[in-house]
UniProtKB/TrEMBL annotation:
PANTHER family: HEME EXPORTER PROTEIN D. Required for the export of heme to the periplasm for the biogenesis of c-type cytochromes. InterPro entries: Haem_export_protD_CcmD, Heme_exporter_D. Its main location: membrane. It comes from Rhodanobacter lycopersici. The keyword Membrane applies. Belongs to the CcmD/CycX/HelD family. It comes from the Bacteria. It is found in: Cell inner membrane. The chain crosses the membrane at residues 26-44. Pfam families: CcmD. Keywords: Cell inner membrane, Cell membrane, Cytochrome c-type biogenesis, Membrane, Transmembrane, Transmembrane helix, Transport. This is Heme exporter protein D.
Length: 79
Protein backbone atom coordinates (compact mmCIF):
# COMPACT_ATOMS: atom_id res chain seq x y z
CA UNK A 1 0.00 0.00 0.00
CA UNK A 2 1.55 3.29 -1.05
CA UNK A 3 1.24 6.56 0.89
CA UNK A 4 -1.69 7.89 -1.16
CA UNK A 5 -3.72 4.73 -0.68
CA UNK A 6 -2.88 4.79 3.01
CA UNK A 7 -4.01 8.42 3.25
CA UNK A 8 -7.37 7.66 1.62
CA UNK A 9 -7.79 4.57 3.79
CA UNK A 10 -7.31 6.78 6.84
CA UNK A 11 -9.86 9.29 5.50
CA UNK A 12 -12.74 7.75 7.45
CA UNK A 13 -10.77 7.99 10.67
CA UNK A 14 -9.87 11.61 9.99
CA UNK A 15 -13.49 12.51 9.30
CA UNK A 16 -14.55 10.70 12.47
CA UNK A 17 -11.93 12.64 14.41
CA UNK A 18 -13.20 15.99 13.13
CA UNK A 19 -16.81 15.00 13.87
CA UNK A 20 -15.79 14.24 17.47
CA UNK A 21 -18.43 11.58 17.87
CA UNK A 22 -21.25 14.01 17.10
CA UNK A 23 -20.01 16.63 19.56
CA UNK A 24 -17.99 18.68 17.06
CA UNK A 25 -20.40 21.61 17.41
CA UNK A 26 -19.37 21.87 21.06
CA UNK A 27 -15.75 20.75 20.95
CA UNK A 28 -14.35 22.93 18.15
CA UNK A 29 -15.84 26.21 19.46
CA UNK A 30 -14.42 25.32 22.88
CA UNK A 31 -10.99 24.91 21.30
CA UNK A 32 -11.45 28.23 19.47
CA UNK A 33 -12.36 30.04 22.70
CA UNK A 34 -9.43 28.44 24.49
CA UNK A 35 -6.93 29.57 21.87
CA UNK A 36 -8.48 33.06 21.69
CA UNK A 37 -8.07 33.43 25.46
CA UNK A 38 -4.54 32.04 25.26
CA UNK A 39 -3.60 34.60 22.60
CA UNK A 40 -5.30 37.46 24.44
CA UNK A 41 -3.52 36.44 27.64
CA UNK A 42 -0.23 36.66 25.77
CA UNK A 43 -0.91 39.93 23.93
CA UNK A 44 -2.53 41.99 26.72
CA UNK A 45 0.58 42.35 28.91
CA UNK A 46 2.65 43.39 25.91
CA UNK A 47 0.15 46.09 24.96
CA UNK A 48 -0.08 47.25 28.58
CA UNK A 49 3.72 47.43 28.82
CA UNK A 50 3.92 49.45 25.61
CA UNK A 51 1.26 51.89 26.88
CA UNK A 52 2.95 52.31 30.27
CA UNK A 53 6.34 52.93 28.66
CA UNK A 54 4.80 55.54 26.34
CA UNK A 55 3.19 57.30 29.32
CA UNK A 56 6.45 57.25 31.28
CA UNK A 57 8.40 58.67 28.34
CA UNK A 58 5.88 61.49 28.06
CA UNK A 59 6.04 62.18 31.78
CA UNK A 60 9.85 62.23 31.71
CA UNK A 61 9.85 64.55 28.70
CA UNK A 62 7.50 66.97 30.51
CA UNK A 63 9.63 66.87 33.64
CA UNK A 64 12.77 67.48 31.59
CA UNK A 65 11.15 70.42 29.79
CA UNK A 66 10.04 71.86 33.14
CA UNK A 67 13.55 71.51 34.56
CA UNK A 68 15.11 73.30 31.55
CA UNK A 69 12.84 76.34 31.83
CA UNK A 70 14.51 79.37 33.38
CA UNK A 71 13.23 80.19 36.84
CA UNK A 72 10.54 82.84 36.93
CA UNK A 73 11.73 86.32 37.81
CA UNK A 74 9.90 88.02 40.58
CA UNK A 75 8.84 91.56 39.96
CA UNK A 76 8.74 93.71 43.04
CA UNK A 77 6.43 96.71 42.94
CA UNK A 78 8.14 100.08 43.31
CA UNK A 79 6.93 102.24 46.24
Amino acid sequence: MNALQHFFAMGDHVVAFFRMGGYAGYVWPAYAVFFAVLIADNVAPRLRRRRILRELRGRLARQDARARRPPPTSVTPSP
